[in-house]
Amino acid sequence: MIRRFGSQGKINFVHFRDVRGTPEHFVETFHDDGPTDMLACLEAYAEVGYDGVLRPDHVPTLLGETNDRPGYSFLGRLYAVGYIRGLREAVYASRAAPARAQTG
């Protein structure tokens, strides 16, 4: 789907998350703990030239946090942002590396 819609320029905003279960009964997982290959997703976004917003959507609540805003806990989102940044930098930097080497 990323390649299909991305190649048409139809991806404007990405809610990056993963879930485990069925559409009727699911739980949100941390980005590195679900069934989806998140690295492959980032590689597909890079292939189609996507450079827009990519943000964590929902995350699990961690021990010690209140669950007054389920899916939007502070520590879980902080973890997700770091994970996503790491994936994005690894994928996008590796694609830009040859261009930087030529100018350096």
Strand line-up across the major sheet: 1-4
Low-confidence stretches: 100-104
The span between the termini is 36 Å
Question: How large is the share of residues in beta strands?
Answer: 15-25%
Shape: globular
Radius of gyration: 16 Å
Helix and strand sequence: HEEEHEH
Number of helices: 3
Question: How many strand segments?
Answer: 4
Secondary-structure-based class equals alpha+beta
Describe the structure.
By secondary structure, the protein is of the alpha+beta class. The chain has three helices and four strands; from the N terminus they run αβββαβα. It has helices spanning 2-6, 38-47, 74-103; strands at 13-16, 18-21, 26-29, 53-56. The strands form two sheets. It has a two-stranded parallel sheet. The chain has a two-stranded antiparallel sheet with strand order 2-3. Helix 2 (38-47) crosses helix 3 (74-103). The longest helix has 30 residues, at 74-103. The radius of gyration is 16 Å and the shape is globular. The relative contact order is 0.17. Mean pLDDT is 86; it is low at 100-104.
SSE order and pairing:
Elements (H helix, E strand, L loop, with lengths): L1 H5 L6 E4 L1 E4 L4 E4 L8 H10 L5 E4 L17 H30 L1
Characteristics of this structure?
alpha+beta; disordered C terminus; globular; 104 residues; two-stranded parallel ribbon; two-stranded antiparallel ribbon
Summarize the structure.
With about 100 residues, the chain is of the alpha+beta class. It has helices spanning about 1-5, 40-45, 75-104, and strands at about 15, 20, 25-30, 55.
